[in-house]
Amino acid sequence: MSRNNQSLTILALQKFKKNFWGVLSLSFILILVFIAVFAYVFAPDNTKNANWGDLSIHSKSPGFKVEMLTLPVPGKTEETHLSDYFTGKEFVQPKVPILGYEINSDSLTYTEYANDPDLAVTKSVPLTVFGTTDPETIKTDFIKEQKFILGTDSQGRDLLSRLIVGSRVSIAIGFVAVFISLIVGIFFGAIAGFFGGKVDAFVMWLVNIIWSIPTLLLVIAITLALGKGFWQVFVAVGLTMWVEVARVVRGQVMSIKQMQFVTAARALGYNNIRIIFNHILPNSMAPVIVISAANFASAILVESGLSFLGLGAQPPVPSWGGMIKDHYNYIILGKPYLALAPGIAMLLLVLAFMMVGNALRDALDVKAE
């Protein structure tokens, strides 16, 4: 098949595949999306919101290891359901980090973990709590060494687990905010560009008003109006990003509606809605796709800023912006990785979306050779 006979979509895909950084960035995004969807499968701490922690092991360095003693709760069993792989476990048996233990004939004596062993507290529990008196069974089933690959945060929670689960917020905000911005922006941009006149003047007046307000201030105002929460932030961010989409769609529609195939559609008696959605919009999506990739990155940064200000996802829901807020003071206290880890994760994700956007721009540029 000759190059001239290939569709523009196939040609764009071929050009995109030749862009090494674009393909690498898209692969990184897809892998991160997969990890975010199955976050509780990959996270070492599979409790809901990865929220298990113990203050005795707070702010530990990467690679920290400690023995964990599980103390079963009578009458409650830790069950695993299919939904737990997506939402995390609601109930887990309590765990206690320990320095050492000794099993006697009828009890287990353990020393709770403490940075200063001289201040460690020693406690005893009857063996009946474990449902067995066999020392080997207790050692095997209830005492295990736990390793924190990236260390623990200021609340003694596993930092790696919080990072993995927190990726859900950043990725979800991108998808939801971009979806909202596309729906609103394409609608206003299409009617402004197609009908022109007073409709165009009103839409552009509305766009200019919204664009004149700083994005972060507008998001904060909408968030305060809707209330603090997970979905409120998504809606607020989405409602501030549609203006760019509307301006681009308006320009594309104004250009395309003058073409001959639109004139032919009018001559055939097609109504305006059919002409807009079936003929004009499909031919104006290339720049919209590029803007959407950039809006993904912008949405992630805006959400992180809101979380840093305390207006984003509320505790105990983990988010990268919230993690930076909780640990930015540790940068000067000798443990900068607590804030740098979520910051680097955010940097890589935003960079990946920007690289994909640049690759899409090059691939969809019909004037390029």
UniProtKB/TrEMBL annotation:
<dbReference type="GO" id="GO:0055085">
    <property type="term" value="P:transmembrane transport"/>
</dbReference>
<keyword id="KW-1133">Transmembrane helix</keyword>
<dbReference type="InterPro" id="IPR050366">
    <property type="entry name" value="BP-dependent_transpt_permease"/>
</dbReference>
<dbReference type="Pfam" id="PF12911">
    <property type="entry name" value="OppC_N"/>
</dbReference>
<feature type="transmembrane region" description="Helical">
    <location>
        <begin position="20"/>
        <end position="43"/>
    </location>
</feature>
<keyword id="KW-1003">Cell membrane</keyword>
<keyword id="KW-0812">Transmembrane</keyword>
<dbReference type="Pfam" id="PF00528">
    <property type="entry name" value="BPD_transp_1"/>
</dbReference>
<feature type="domain" description="ABC transmembrane type-1">
    <location>
        <begin position="167"/>
        <end position="357"/>
    </location>
</feature>
<dbReference type="GO" id="GO:0005886">
    <property type="term" value="C:plasma membrane"/>
</dbReference>
<comment type="similarity">
    <text>Belongs to the binding-protein-dependent transport system permease family.</text>
</comment>
<feature type="transmembrane region" description="Helical">
    <location>
        <begin position="337"/>
        <end position="360"/>
    </location>
</feature>
<feature type="transmembrane region" description="Helical">
    <location>
        <begin position="280"/>
        <end position="302"/>
    </location>
</feature>
<feature type="transmembrane region" description="Helical">
    <location>
        <begin position="202"/>
        <end position="224"/>
    </location>
</feature>
<dbReference type="InterPro" id="IPR035906">
    <property type="entry name" value="MetI-like_sf"/>
</dbReference>
<dbReference type="InterPro" id="IPR000515">
    <property type="entry name" value="MetI-like"/>
</dbReference>
<feature type="transmembrane region" description="Helical">
    <location>
        <begin position="169"/>
        <end position="195"/>
    </location>
</feature>
<feature type="transmembrane region" description="Helical">
    <location>
        <begin position="230"/>
        <end position="249"/>
    </location>
</feature>
<keyword id="KW-0813">Transport</keyword>
<keyword id="KW-0472">Membrane</keyword>
<protein>
    <submittedName>
        <fullName>Peptide transporter</fullName>
    </submittedName>
</protein>
<dbReference type="InterPro" id="IPR025966">
    <property type="entry name" value="OppC_N"/>
</dbReference>
